[in-house]
């Protein structure tokens, strides 16, 4: 009957209540867990703040590096063509050759390289590897002089750069060095026809 079922169920519930002892330390344990949670949240917030500060510092360094590179690259890029023209100009070819630098990945210049292209007078575009030894030397000197023009070093040493150059190109290089010499500077210049040019470019040894 219904009364018997209800009494049976009542008995089961009473037995469960009698055998189920309450955890009197549950509240203390809960407070301990909450305190630990607060400590962990505090550590997490501190870690996030530190990470944010480090990221900001990294971004500043990255931007500073990019700015310094951009300034240097812009100067060198603008100078290299002018210098190369001076080194390749002649009566037959008064305009000289053409040289320029290009970034392989302009948005992230450090992720790729820099392409250097030099075209001697009357020569069509070709890879640097296909230039003659003398043409490569003139192109390399133009790049070297362009780099030096950005932040001139206290001294500047060139060793046997005329090895692959003919007399005409040696004279052009010597003329360029002499033309860029400031008043009062002296230099030790030895070897080939450059010594005969009497250059006074400071601390250059050829």
Please give a quick description of this structure:
With 206 residues, the protein is mainly alpha-helical. Helices cover 56% and strands 6% of the residues.
Textual characterization of the structure:
- The chain is mainly alpha-helical and 206 residues long.
- A two-stranded antiparallel ribbon has the order 1-2.
- Helix 2 crosses helix 3.
- It is rod-shaped and about 125 Å long.
- The C terminus is likely disordered.
Helix content: 55-70%
Separate helix tally:
5
* Low-confidence spans: 183-206
- Distance between the terminal alpha carbons, to the nearest Å? 120 Å
- Strand-pairing-aware structural class: mainly alpha
Oligomeric state of shown chains: single chain
Number of strands: 2
């Amino acid at each position: 009957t219904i009364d018997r079922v209800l009494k049976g169920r009542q008995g089961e519930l009473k037995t469960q209540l009698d055998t189920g002892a309450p955890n009197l330390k549950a509240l203390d344990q809960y407070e301990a867990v909450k305190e630990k949670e607060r400590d962990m949240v505090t550590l997490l917030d501190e870690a996030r703040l530190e990470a944010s500060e480090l990221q900001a510092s990294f971004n500043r360094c990255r931007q500073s590096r990019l700015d310094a590179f951009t300034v240097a690259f812009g100067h060198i890029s603008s100078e290299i063509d002018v210098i190369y023209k001076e080194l390749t100009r002649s009566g037959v070819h008064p305009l000289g050759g053409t040289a320029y630098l290009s970034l392989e990945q302009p948005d992230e210049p450090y992720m790729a390289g820099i392409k250097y292209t030099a075209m001697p007078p009357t020569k069509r575009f070709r890879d640097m590897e296909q230039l003659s030894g003398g043409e490569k030397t003139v192109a390399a000197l133009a790049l070297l002089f362009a780099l030096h023009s950005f932040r001139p070093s206290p001294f500047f040493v060139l060793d046997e750069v005329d090895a692959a150059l003919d007399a005409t190109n040696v004279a052009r290089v010597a003329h360029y060095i002499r033309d860029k010499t400031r008043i009062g500077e002296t230099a030790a210049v030895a070897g080939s026809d450059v010594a005969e040019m009497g250059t006074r470019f400071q601390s250059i040894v050829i």
